[in-house]
Amino acid sequence: MKKYLKLLRVEQWVKNLFVFLPVFFSGKILELDLFGKSCMAFMVFSLTASCIYIINDYMDLEQDKKHPQKCYRPLASGAITKKTAILIGLFIGLLIGGCMLYISIANGMKIQRFNSAILAYFILNLFYTFKLKHVPIIDIFIISIGFVLRVLSGGFITGIGVSQWATLLTFLLALVLAIGKRRGELINENINGQTRKALGGYNVQFADIALSISCTLAIVCYVMFTLSPEVQYKFHPRVFYTVIFVVFAFLRYLQQTLVYNKTESPTKIIYKDHYIQVILLLWLVAFLLQIYFKE
User: Fold this and answer.
1) Do the beta carbons of residue 195 and residue 189 sit within 8 Å?
2) Distance from the CA of 99 to the CA of which of 47, 115, 148, 226 falls in 20 to 30 A?
3) Cα angle for residues 204, 148, 258 (degrees, 5° grid)
4) Cα–Cα distance, 172 to 123 (Å, whole number)
5) What phi and psi values does residue 33 have, to the nearest 5 degrees?
6) What is the chain's pLDDT, residue by residue, as a tens digit (295 residues)?
7) Which residue, among 100, 83, 1, 111, has the nearest Cα to 48 in the 3D structure?
């Protein structure tokens, strides 16, 4: 069972928690109907991402065999055969189609924008898998757009609008993580040789500058988000003070990236870095108090 979970990259599903942001920030996460729809969006996005991962591993099989870490992936190591991977991918594809059909029928065919977001994510990542992941700059932009589609899909399925500041903030946050990962791969490349074609368009100095710019823009965007009239009206004005947690989180991420070179995979931070875990928990609690106990 472990090898199949590894093939699906279940540990990467944490990224799809972004679909819950619209219902969380709207203060309606306790409404079971909307929460259930968000859970459905999470599952559909997770299955879609897993399907893409299978296609990616199938296409990169020979390269992964030569990679110091990727050689342990189920397909590259031979733990799962190519035929089995194809059958699993087809089954997941059918499951995704069934879920999208159910969502459309259950909502009276009024939720086509959600299905369009899923389809856009799938097609965009197919282009990424077959070609665009080898094109510097474009590769990290596609990753960032994928996170935006996650948030938008959470809004589409629940009927909750996503503000421009929230959309831009999501894009910039994802850009920070993508650049940090590329920087980690550059460090790894210096040790083990080239592992990704797109790395030819990056170097550590460029990654450091791009990461600093993106972090700065993300912090400024978050400040503007907390100061926007709609947020100030919806929550208590003291929501602005959650900026403290955000700045700390970005500084910790920069420390991990620039000092310790530990960010080849951004999800590892969420699972292993206790500082980031605590600060995210404090930020979450602070927002919960502003949203649900603002009186």
Assistant:
1) yes
2) 148
3) 20
4) 22
5) -65, -50
6) 788 888 899 988 988 999 999 998 887 888 899 999 999 999 999 999 999 999 998 888 888 887 777 788 888 888 888 999 999 999 999 999 998 888 888 776 557 889 999 999 999 999 999 989 999 999 999 999 999 999 999 999 999 988 888 899 999 999 998 998 888 888 876 655 556 778 889 999 999 999 999 999 999 999 998 888 888 887 777 888 999 999 999 999 888 888 887 765 666 777 788 898 899 899 988 888 877 676 5
7) 100
The pair of structure tokens assigned to 135 is 């094109």
Residues in the chain: 295
**Domain extents in the chain:** 1-115, 163-295
Instruction: Check: CB of residue 70 under 8 Å from CB of residue 64.
Output: yes
Cβ atoms of residues 29 and 23 within 8 Å: yes
Which residue's entry shows tokens 């306790």?
30
Q: Cβ contacts of residue 215 below 8 Å, gap of 6+?
A: 176, 250, 253, 254
Tell me the CA distances in angstroms from 25 to 74, 106, 155, 196, 277, one per residue in order.
38, 24, 11, 37, 20
Helical residues (DSSP H) of the chain, grouped into ranges: 2-8, 21-25, 32-59, 61-66, 74-77, 82-106, 112-130, 138-158, 164-192, 204-227, 229-234, 243-254, 267-272, 274-292
* Tens of pLDDT, residues 162-213: 888 889 999 999 999 899 888 888 887 665 555 677 888 999 999 999 999 9
Q: Return d(Cα 6, Cα 74) in angstroms, integer.
A: 7
Residue 11 tokens read as 């540990």
Asked whether 51 and 44 are in contact (CB, 8 A), the reply is no
Q: Write down the residue that tokens 């589409």 correspond to.
A: 156
